[in-house]
Each structure stands twice: as structure tokens, then as C-alpha cells.
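Exercise 3.2. Students should predict the tertiary structure of the chain below and write it as C-alpha cells, then compare their answer with the key that follows.

Predict this chain's 3D structure.
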Amino acid sequence: MGVRVEKTDLPGIGVRHEVSTASGQRIGVVAHHDGRRDLIYFDPDDPDSCKASVPLTDSEAEALADVLGTSIMLSQLANIHEHADGLLTEQVSIPADSPYAGRPLGDTQARTRTGVSIVAVLRSDEAVPSPGPDYVLSAGDIVVAVGTRKGLDKLGELLSNGAA
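Answer key:
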């Protein structure tokens, strides 16, 4: 899994970090001294030429980092059964009539009551990895949880009707 990130100082501009993909393509980020950043894609035929540059606002950079980080986390969780016998990952929806819709995650006491760990919450097109106890759940949220079959079943009951 050794991906190499090359850092290059760009005098008068900032710093460029670039990654070579397994398919031989190169992508990177230029972080300007003034705080701007650009996502860049190098021309495969000319390694010194930038084929495309996309300026990113702080919010866009943060959203992209969240999407990439969350997709990796969810992929790892999906494959966790290969490494831990009896441990499962499941996505549990918060129904509209859940007693926890509109309440903080900590109110569920899910870990104590079910033995299950909630590792992320998916809302619309946003993923929140490792939500804290103050994170307010909403109807339609999808909770990503890790635990045993029995614990995950209890979590489903807890989030649906408050009983575990």
C-alpha cells in the first residue's frame, strides 16, 4: 500500500504535492502561499505539463477530503469480516418515527445498550465519520455500525422503537 507523495516547493507560489496512481497517471494539489489551492492533473504524455487545474475553495477542499476519507473508511468496514470472525458492518436507517430523530446520538447509549459501535452517519450526500455524542440524528440518516449480529439487531430495534 506504499503510495509515494512527492512534495515540491514552488518559489513565489507555494507547495505542490503529487501522487502517481497505479495506472501511471499523476494528480496533485498546489497549496498557494495566500491559502488558495488547486487540484491538478498532469498530461500523461508530458509529465512536466499540467493538463487540467481546478481551483478549490476551503469548503470544496474539505468536502473532497471528506468524500475520499469516508469512501476509504466504508470500503475498509465492508471488508472487515475478512479479518474479524463474527464481526459485521451494517447500515441502519433512522425511521421518521424513531424516538431518537432530532436527538443527540449520545441519548441512544447504543454502545452500552447493544455492544455496537457507530462509526459513521450518512445524511443525504454527506458522511460524518466517527460522530460524537452531541451529533443530532435526523429521520432518514443512515447509521454505519460495527458489531455482532445480535448487537446489530438490538441497534435496529433501539433506533426504531427505543427498545434494545
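Discussion points: DSSP finds three helices and nine strands in the chain. Strands lie at 5-10, 14-20, 26-32, 37-43, 46-56, 88-93, 117-123, 126-129, 142-147.
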